[in-house]
């Protein structure tokens, strides 16, 4: 693989403010380095100490790491615990009346629920699940809108040792069916409908439809949470109302103590092939990752009002809504709605209303809010904020700067957190009281995370060259396997070509300070005339242009260059046509040539009102690549949020 040094030229650097640093859990770079050194010197001892300190064990572990059958590692594997006990019961004596969840509904009404009240609801629902015959190791599919009930359902499964598999409410009946059958669910939990942006979204009917598709014989019951009261079909032999079950149960349910390695959940994620992978996480290792990352990266304080905008259907909503904040006894906002309803000021208005102190969202949300109302944050009092986070994709330096100045008022550190469904919790991210940020870089690995960039044979890259992002040692929160497919687990993440490293599937490079810069998925790296270019670098250059709101770059096979560069661009203003479009194409090509170099100039630029995105906000580059090649889209686009956009993006400007 030939490579060139990355052309990324970002040089701005933002050190933590003194006051933030003084108050931070990990304060100053030496404190961070000390933690890293501890992990270097005694790797298993480092993790064992943390697991003892952060988790309440029913039966303490004596064994730390089993490496006898790599890559099937086990951690703390003779210990016993319960995740729900760690998220709820252990707080009751000291902060039972503290607000655990501030729930804000789509219509703007909000309710507070205390730890005591949440514990009671989880216990009642756990008892109800037991009564339906759900027990240790049974799989339960959860297909719910963002709600307190979604958190209750997940926690209730954890309480009785059932393994939940949450399916994002935006997935189609077909995708839901695929997951229900693969995981072998015994029970499905859903709602009549969800509410998003003032519109009802049918959920129960999708469950009904998927259950008629065959292969779901294991599903005995469907529990339905009544959210809207909208009309739903009812199957007397299968369907049960949540509120009727909960009403008759008692307020306490003894937690089922499980082994540290007992699967807490299975969450499906897309791989490089069509079939989604059921990523299986452990109980103890996973929980430890969620707890530590909240402490280290989000500098969690008892007084914080934490808000992660992710849906519980994604890993971010698992670790930073359903488990992490509760495990720490924190107060968090759970939001049912969408960022643009009733208008694009919703996030900022909610930060003001609930006095949010730590806010965690995705670059795609940031970019779309810049497009819809870059000055809107100025209309609200955002002085409660002290820390901002991003996740899901690289953040373009210009979007980073906007987040920093307009939202954070140059006061709040930004934690750009690199991690994956598979890693369970943050892997590379700045500890905000210790590590200076550079816009667009996720900075340095968390203590104990042996991340590196290597060549395809596992050898070290030289200097700041790009390569494969790997993690060289197993760590507690890493996935344990792919449900039903251990071979795929081994092949995908621990390929023979690497000496036992976890292969993340991203490419990256490290700058002279050792900072990591994610260049995109392995398949997103372009090789243009022998030069390796990260799609993100070109996107960042485009987004830095004052006309551009968002951009996505894909490669298109080219006889001479290997690949040519196709840019899909969303302007801040109207989508241009005719001569106006030609003029902007020429200007943008010159712009990129000026920002990066002539090698990075897009060969083609196409304009759209938006980019094709999954419902979790990821740009669907696979579709963009097909469009670039002029192929008809025949593959499954059920996860696509805005299919109409594809028509606009078919045509190059001519
Ligand atoms: C948590 C989550 C994982 C993939 C990952 C990478 C991309 C996530 C990122 C980032 C650059 C960041 N990604 N965070 N890229 N900077 N801060 O998003 O999990 O949905 O499994 O996606 O997302 O490509 O490999 P998941």
From TrEMBL:
<feature type="binding site">
    <location>
        <position position="529"/>
    </location>
    <ligand>
        <name>CoA</name>
    </ligand>
</feature>
<dbReference type="GO" id="GO:0003987">
    <property type="term" value="F:acetate-CoA ligase activity"/>
</dbReference>
<feature type="domain" description="AMP-binding enzyme C-terminal">
    <location>
        <begin position="537"/>
        <end position="618"/>
    </location>
</feature>
<dbReference type="GO" id="GO:0005829">
    <property type="term" value="C:cytosol"/>
</dbReference>
<dbReference type="GO" id="GO:0005524">
    <property type="term" value="F:ATP binding"/>
</dbReference>
<keyword id="KW-0479">Metal-binding</keyword>
<feature type="binding site">
    <location>
        <position position="532"/>
    </location>
    <ligand>
        <name>ATP</name>
    </ligand>
</feature>
<dbReference type="InterPro" id="IPR020845">
    <property type="entry name" value="AMP-binding_CS"/>
</dbReference>
<dbReference type="GO" id="GO:0016208">
    <property type="term" value="F:AMP binding"/>
</dbReference>
<feature type="binding site">
    <location>
        <position position="506"/>
    </location>
    <ligand>
        <name>ATP</name>
    </ligand>
</feature>
<dbReference type="Pfam" id="PF00501">
    <property type="entry name" value="AMP-binding"/>
</dbReference>
<feature type="domain" description="Acetyl-coenzyme A synthetase N-terminal">
    <location>
        <begin position="32"/>
        <end position="87"/>
    </location>
</feature>
<keyword id="KW-0547">Nucleotide-binding</keyword>
<keyword id="KW-0067">ATP-binding</keyword>
<dbReference type="GO" id="GO:0019427">
    <property type="term" value="P:acetyl-CoA biosynthetic process from acetate"/>
</dbReference>
<feature type="binding site">
    <location>
        <position position="316"/>
    </location>
    <ligand>
        <name>CoA</name>
    </ligand>
</feature>
<dbReference type="InterPro" id="IPR045851">
    <property type="entry name" value="AMP-bd_C_sf"/>
</dbReference>
<feature type="binding site">
    <location>
        <position position="521"/>
    </location>
    <ligand>
        <name>ATP</name>
    </ligand>
</feature>
<dbReference type="Pfam" id="PF16177">
    <property type="entry name" value="ACAS_N"/>
</dbReference>
<comment type="function">
    <text>Catalyzes the conversion of acetate into acetyl-CoA (AcCoA), an essential intermediate at the junction of anabolic and catabolic pathways. AcsA undergoes a two-step reaction. In the first half reaction, AcsA combines acetate with ATP to form acetyl-adenylate (AcAMP) intermediate. In the second half reaction, it can then transfer the acetyl group from AcAMP to the sulfhydryl group of CoA, forming the product AcCoA.</text>
</comment>
<dbReference type="InterPro" id="IPR032387">
    <property type="entry name" value="ACAS_N"/>
</dbReference>
<feature type="binding site">
    <location>
        <begin position="392"/>
        <end position="394"/>
    </location>
    <ligand>
        <name>ATP</name>
    </ligand>
</feature>
<dbReference type="InterPro" id="IPR000873">
    <property type="entry name" value="AMP-dep_synth/lig_dom"/>
</dbReference>
<dbReference type="InterPro" id="IPR011904">
    <property type="entry name" value="Ac_CoA_lig"/>
</dbReference>
<keyword id="KW-0007">Acetylation</keyword>
<comment type="similarity">
    <text>Belongs to the ATP-dependent AMP-binding enzyme family.</text>
</comment>
<feature type="binding site">
    <location>
        <begin position="196"/>
        <end position="199"/>
    </location>
    <ligand>
        <name>CoA</name>
    </ligand>
</feature>
<feature type="binding site">
    <location>
        <position position="548"/>
    </location>
    <ligand>
        <name>Mg(2+)</name>
    </ligand>
</feature>
<protein>
    <recommendedName>
        <fullName>Acetyl-coenzyme A synthetase</fullName>
        <ecNumber>6.2.1.1</ecNumber>
    </recommendedName>
</protein>
<dbReference type="GO" id="GO:0046872">
    <property type="term" value="F:metal ion binding"/>
</dbReference>
<dbReference type="InterPro" id="IPR025110">
    <property type="entry name" value="AMP-bd_C"/>
</dbReference>
<keyword id="KW-0460">Magnesium</keyword>
<dbReference type="Pfam" id="PF13193">
    <property type="entry name" value="AMP-binding_C"/>
</dbReference>
<feature type="domain" description="AMP-dependent synthetase/ligase">
    <location>
        <begin position="89"/>
        <end position="474"/>
    </location>
</feature>
<feature type="binding site">
    <location>
        <begin position="416"/>
        <end position="421"/>
    </location>
    <ligand>
        <name>ATP</name>
    </ligand>
</feature>
<feature type="modified residue" description="N6-acetyllysine">
    <location>
        <position position="618"/>
    </location>
</feature>
<keyword id="KW-0436">Ligase</keyword>
<feature type="binding site">
    <location>
        <position position="543"/>
    </location>
    <ligand>
        <name>Mg(2+)</name>
    </ligand>
</feature>
<dbReference type="InterPro" id="IPR042099">
    <property type="entry name" value="ANL_N_sf"/>
</dbReference>
């Amino acid at each position: 693989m030939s490579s060139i040094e990355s052309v990324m030229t970002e040089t701005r650097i933002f050190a933590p403010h003194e006051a933030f640093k003084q108050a931070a859990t990990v304060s100053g770079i030496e404190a961070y380095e000390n933690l890293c050194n501890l992990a270097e010197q005694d790797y298993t001892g480092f993790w064992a100490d943390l697991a003892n300190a952060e988790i309440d064990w029913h039966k303490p572990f004596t064994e730390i790491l089993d490496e006898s059958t790599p890559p099937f590692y086990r951690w703390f594997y003779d210990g016993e615990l319960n995740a729900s006990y760690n998220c709820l019961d252990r707080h009751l004596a000291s902060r039972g009346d503290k607000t655990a969840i501030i729930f804000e509904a789509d219509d703007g009404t909000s309710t507070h629920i205390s730890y005591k009240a949440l514990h009671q609801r989880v216990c009642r629902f756990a008892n109800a699940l037991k009564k339906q015959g759900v027990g240790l190791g049974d799989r339960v599919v959860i297909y719910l809108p963002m709600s307190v009930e979604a958190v209750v359902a997940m926690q209730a499964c954890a309480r009785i040792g059932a393994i939940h598999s949450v399916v994002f409410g935006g997935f189609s009946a077909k995708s839901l069916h695929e997951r229900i059958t693969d995981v072998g669910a015994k029970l499905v939990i859903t709602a009549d409908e969800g509410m998003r942006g003032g519109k009802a979204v049918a959920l129960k009917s999708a469950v009904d439809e998927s259950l008629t598709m065959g292969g779901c014989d294991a599903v005995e019951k469907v529990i339905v949470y009544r959210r809207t009261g909208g009309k739903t079909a009812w199957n007397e032999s299968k369907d049960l109302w949540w509120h009727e079950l909960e009403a008759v149960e008692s307020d306490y349910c003894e937690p089922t103590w499980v082994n540290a390695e007992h699967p807490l959940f299975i969450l499906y994620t897309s791989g490089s092939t069509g079939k989604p992978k059921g990523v299986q996480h452990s109980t103890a290792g996973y929980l430890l990752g969620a707890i530590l990352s909240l402490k280290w990266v989000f500098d969690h304080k008892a007084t914080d009002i934490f808000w992660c905008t992710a849906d519980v259907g994604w890993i971010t909503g698992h670790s930073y809504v359903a488990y992490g904040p509760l495990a720490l006894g924190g107060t968090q906002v759970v939001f049912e709605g969408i960022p643009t309803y009733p208008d694009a000021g919703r996030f900022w208005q909610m930060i003001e209303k609930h006095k949010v102190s730590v806010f965690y969202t995705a670059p795609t949300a940031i970019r779309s809010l810049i497009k819809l109302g870059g000055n809107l944050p100025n209309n609200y009092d955002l002085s409660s904020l002290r820390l901002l986070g991003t996740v899901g994709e690289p953040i373009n330096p210009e979007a980073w700067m906007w987040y920093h100045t307009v939202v954070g008022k140059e006061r709040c550190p930004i934690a750009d957190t690199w991690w994956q469904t598979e890693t369970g919790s943050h892997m590379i991210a700045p500890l905000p009281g210790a590590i200076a940020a550079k816009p667009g870089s996720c900075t340095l690995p968390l203590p104990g995370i042996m991340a590196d960039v290597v060549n395809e044979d596992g050898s070290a890259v030289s200097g700041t060259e790009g390569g494969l992002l790997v993690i060289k040692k197993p760590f507690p929160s890493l996935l344990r396997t792919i449900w039903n497919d251990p071979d795929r687990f081994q092949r995908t993440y621990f390929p023979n070509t690497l000496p036992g490293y976890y292969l993340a599937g991203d490419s990256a490079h490290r700058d002279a300070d050792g900072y990591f810069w994610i260049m995109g998925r392995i398949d997103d790296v372009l090789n243009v005339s022998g030069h390796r270019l990260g799609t993100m670098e070109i996107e960042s250059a485009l987004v830095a242009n004052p006309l551009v709101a968002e951009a996505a770059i894909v490669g298109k096979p080219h006889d001479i260059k290997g690949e040519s560069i196709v840019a899909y661009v969303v302007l801040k203003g109207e989508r241009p046509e005719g001569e106006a479009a030609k003029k902007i194409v020429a200007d943008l090509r010159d712009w990129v040539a000026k920002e990066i170099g002539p090698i990075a100039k897009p060969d083609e630029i196409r304009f759209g009102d938006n980019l094709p995105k999954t419902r979790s906000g990821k740009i669907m580059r696979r579709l963009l690549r097909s469009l670039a090649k002029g192929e008809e889209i025949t593959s499954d686009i059920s996860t696509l949020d805005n299919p109409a956009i594809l028509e606009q993006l078919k045509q190059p400007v001519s």
